[in-house]
Amino acid sequence: MIRLEGYNLLRAAERGWSAPCHTNHIMSAPGPSEVESNFAKVIFHDARMKKVLLYVPVVLSFVILGAHFMRYGNSTGVVGSTVLIALLFVRKAWAARLIQVVLILGALEWLRTIFELAQVRATLGQPFTRMLVILGVVTALTVCAALLFQSPTLKRIYRLDRGN
């Protein structure tokens, strides 16, 4: 049987096939306008999911940075990280640029932390390779999160291509 979603629904309508109904009855193939409508819903859903997925590294970077600040007792850093997550809802160019700058500063904080912890562990004779790899990945995630604001989708959302 033909599944009732996206491409398969479109192909069924083109061929004039029947498609299963949710009541387990066989119905005739939908008309072209119904197929286009359903296909558009699937495409729109995919586009919205892509937008949401662009925010995942940004939010994750701020959550990890907030946890880092909490670990060292810096409540200002924790509150700042939380406020910056909320700032993602402000669809202005200045908000996007502020988030980018803070993410780059966060990456620099991770590099400083790597350097300090590596020195301490080397002085104590403890292995530090695993720590370098983990914090290196966190640093790379933070830099990539900042670079996501250069993507066409986020440029459009935050109106970054208008000379701001």
- What structural category do the secondary elements indicate? mainly alpha
Tally the beta strands.
Answer: 2
- Tell me the strand order in the biggest sheet: 1-2
Termini, distance in Å? 52 Å
Low-confidence region ranges: 1-7, 18-25
The helix fraction, in percent, is over 70%
Mean pLDDT: 83
The number of helical runs is: 6
- What order do the SSEs take from the amino end to the carboxyl end, as H and E? HEEHHHHH
Percent of residues in beta strands = under 5%
The biggest beta sheet is recorded as:
2 strands, antiparallel
**Roughly how many Å is the radius of gyration?**
24 Å
- Taken from the alpha-carbon principal axes, the silhouette is elongated
Give a structural overview.
- 73% of the residues lie in helices and 2% in strands.
- The termini are far apart.
- It has a domain at 55-157.
- The protein has a two-stranded antiparallel ribbon.
- Residues 1-7 and 18-25 have low confidence and may be disordered.
- It has six helices and two strands, in the order H-E-E-H-H-H-H-H.
Brief descriptors of the model:
single chain, mainly alpha, two-stranded antiparallel ribbon, 2% strand
Quick overview:
73% of the residues lie in helices and 2% in strands. It is mainly α.
Mind sketching the topology for me?
Layout: H1 6-15, E1 19-20, E2 26-27, H2 32-71, H3 75-87, H4 93-123, H5 129-147, H6 152-157
Antiparallel strand pairs: 1-2
